[in-house]
Design brief:
The complex is a heterodimer of chains A (253) and B (224). Chain A is 42% helix and 22% strand. With 253 residues, chain A is an alpha/beta fold. Chain A has two domains: 115 residues, Periplasmic binding protein-like II (D-Maltodextrin-Binding Protein, domain 2, 3-Layer(aba) Sandwich); 98 residues, D-Maltodextrin-Binding Protein, domain 2 (3-Layer(aba) Sandwich), CATH 3.40.190. In chain A, the strands form three sheets. A five-stranded mixed β-sheet of chain A has the order 2-1-3-12-4. Chain A has a five-stranded mixed β-sheet with strand order 7-6-8-5-11. In chain A, strands 9-10 form a two-stranded antiparallel ribbon. In chain A, helix 3 packs parallel to helix 4. The longest helix of chain B is centred in the first third of the chain and has 34 residues. Chain B is globular and about 65 Å long. Chain B starts with a helix and ends in a 7-residue tail after the last helix. The mean pLDDT of chain B is 90. The interface between A and B is medium-sized, with 23 and 21 residues.
Chain lengths: 253, 224
Amino acid sequence: MKSSPLLSRAFAALLVLAASLAVQAAEVQVAVAANFAGPMKVLAADFEKATGHKAVLASGATGKFYAQIQSGAPFDIFLAADDETPARLDKDGATVPGSRFTYATGKLVLWSARPELVDAKGEVLKSGSFAHLALAAPRLAPYGAAAVEAMTRLGVLARLEPKFVQGESIGQTFGFVSSGNAELGFVALSQVWENGKLKSGSGWIVPAELHSPLRQEAVLLARGKDNAAAVALMAFLKSDAAKAVIRAFGYDV
Amino acid sequence: MPTAADLGAIILTLELATLTTLILLLLGTPLAWWLARTRSAWKGPIGALVALPLVLPPTVLGFYFLVTMGPNGPIGAFTRWLGLGLLPFSFAGLVIGSVLYSMPFVVQPIQNAFEAMGSEALEAAATLRASPLDRFFSVALPLARPGYLTAVVMGFAHTVGEFGVVLMIGGNIPEKTRVVSVQIYDHVEALEYTQAHWLSGGMVVFSFLVLMALYLLNPTGRRR
């Protein structure tokens, strides 16, 4: 079969159109820590509106992402829940050197789905009048490690340890508490915070001096080096507009 | 080398699998018998219910367990009323979850065995005036032996291999709900690949040996 010149010309025009669209609106694959999944969804929509680029999000545990990126997972940007994992990726040569920066500092909150269970000073930890205290596995999740640190400084760790139930990520931990299976637990403020107050239940924002800072770093991965959308998103995350969104979700930045 | 925590997880896993298999044999035998013999219209729906865990992702089961067994769920309200407290984050909760999750792996082989034996042997026993109970224990059970062997091995091995349900309702408590599969997951996430290899390699060898034993002891076609 011979193709008509008109058809082939139309086809060529389509190809050019598709190619130019691809140049204008690139796509960036983002691995995002579970605690930042909510704000990142909002930021991705703003980013798309502002630049036309599309950010495709995958949320999960930071340790898992580290292993996946090591094994060649197709991510351009990694928004980690800590600053150690991006530093380690830097050392492994998996990143664009010098691209690391702190995009948010997390806040830890002792939270219960029940109103009035958690008092304004966190005294409930000392009373120990509950069956289960949920936290993210301290070995795996920075928010879990921070919770253990805070309990150590308050001198209640040994007494509370038998009541621990551990989620594999801060997301699962939040599920344990919000379903009421654990009366209270340590979660990320971003999970329960909206418009400057708690969405529901009761909580105590753990003072920052009780644990080491929950610095969360973003890094441009080697794969995203020449991706215009990836470079644009890194810049967008540093903008004032993005920072305002991040603050509204209960982070410091 | 496996650590003390790893050994604790192994022992807990074996306890869970043993208890689950025993309960399933007790519950599964009458259920399989009924499914194999009944002409009731309920056979289809009940059979489908038993088979559900085969096709459902464990996360679906785990999610519903967490919601229904929790303080706001109907099962949670019931267990509290009984004075048992709540089931999530407890060994009892894991046992109940595992019993439901592994049910088809025990019920179906037994049901197949009961169906395959037909009714001739039982009718012959009946003409010799054996009581129904006697017929069941001295005729049906011995004939169904290969089915039981498959049921025990599959029920046990499947419970050992369980992950999603335990992860969602367990809460990762040492000596109570932290089983081997969860421990492996933790090791991998913490980048402790050596520890993960010890346990994972052990699981591969264990599973292979169990299945090989099953196929050697129970070659297909030995009966019928």
